[in-house]
C-alpha cells in the first residue's frame, strides 16, 4: 500500500505474474472441437497465457490468508472481440443490458457473509437488533462469465438475433440464479475454479440475490410472451 501525496489517498499495488502457455487444469482443448464455430479463436487465446494476481480470500471484513487469483483478461478480451464482431447480432447488447440490470439492482444483488466474530461479541455483550453481515457486491465479472457459458452452448448466429434478445437475457439470468442458489459460480476457463469460493468464506446468505434475479427472470418472461 502506497500513499499518493498529491491527493492524500492510498492506492493498492498488487503483484502480478505472467504465465506462458495455458493452464493445465483447463478443459478448453477438449470442450472446443472442430465443429464448434469458436474453435479457431479458442486456439488463438490459449496461446496468450494467463496471469497470477496476488489477492486474498475475503477482501472485506477480517484479514484472511493471502492467495493467488487467476486472471484470463487478455484471453477474454480477444474472445469477446471475436464474439461481438458482427454488429447486427445481439451479443454486445446482451452484455450491456445485463450490466444495466446489475447496476439498477446493486442494493439487493448482494451476497451476505455472516461475521461470526462480531456475532460472538454481540452475544457476550447482550446486544440486540444489530446486523453483523458483510455484504459482497455481485461483480460484473459473473455476468461476463455466464455470457461466455451461454455463447459456448449456443454459438450459432440464429440464437443471437434481435427477436431473441429477451430470450438470451432470460437464459443467462437463469444461469446466474442457479449458480447463486447452488452456491457454485464456476469459471468459464477452468471447470474446477470457483469465482466465489463459498467454502473458503464464512456462512453466506444468498436469498436477496436469488429473489432479485428471480424477479428479473419473470420480467423477461413477460417480454417474450
From TrEMBL:
Its cofactor is Mg(2+). InterPro entries: Mab-21_HhH/H2TH-like. Coiled coil: none annotated. Transmembrane segments: none annotated. Keywords: ATP-binding, Nucleotide-binding. It holds the Pfam family Mab-21_C. Residues 138-200 form the Mab-21-like HhH/H2TH-like domain. Gene3D superfamilies: 1.10.1410.40. Belongs to the mab-21 family. This is Mab-21-like HhH/H2TH-like domain-containing protein. It comes from Porites evermanni. The lineage of its organism: Eukaryota, Metazoa, Cnidaria, Anthozoa, Hexacorallia.
Amino acid at each position: 500500500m502506497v500513499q499518493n501525496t498529491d491527493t492524500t489517498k492510498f492506492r493498492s499495488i498488487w503483484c502480478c505474474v505472467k504465465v506462458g502457455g495455458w493452464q493445465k487444469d483447463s478443459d478448453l482443448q477438449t470442450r472446443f472441437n472442430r465443429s464448434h464455430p469458436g474453435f479457431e479463436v479458442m486456439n488463438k487465446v490459449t496461446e496468450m497465457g494467463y496471469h497470477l494476481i496476488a489477492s486474498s480470500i475475503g477482501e472485506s471484513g477480517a484479514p484472511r490468508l493471502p492467495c493467488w487469483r487467476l486472471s484470463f483478461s487478455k484471453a477474454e478480451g480477444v474472445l469477446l472481440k471475436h464474439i461481438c464482431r458482427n454488429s447486427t447480432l445481439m451479443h454486445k447488447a446482451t452484455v450491456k443490458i445485463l450490466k444495466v440490470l446489475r447496476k439498477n439492482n446493486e442494493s439487493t444483488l448482494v451476497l451476505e457473509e455472516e461475521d461470526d466474530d462480531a456475532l460472538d461479541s454481540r452475544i457476550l455483550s447482550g446486544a440486540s437488533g444489530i446486523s453483523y453481515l458483510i455484504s459482497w457486491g455481485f461483480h460484473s465479472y459473473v455476468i461476463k462469465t455466464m455470457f461466455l457459458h451461454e455463447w459456448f452452448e449456443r454459438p450459432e448466429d440464429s440464437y443471437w438475433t434481435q427477436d431473441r434478445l429477451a430470450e438470451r437475457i432470460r437464459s443467462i439470468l437463469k444461469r446466474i440464479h442457479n449458480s447463486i442458489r447452488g452456491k457454485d459460480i464456476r469459471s468459464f476457463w477452468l471447470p474446477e475454479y470457483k469465482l466465489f469460493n463459498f467454502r473458503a468464506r464464512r456462512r453466506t446468505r444468498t436469498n436477496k440475490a436469488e429473489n432479485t434475479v428471480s424477479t428479473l427472470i419473470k420480467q423477461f418472461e413477460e417480454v417474450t410472451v
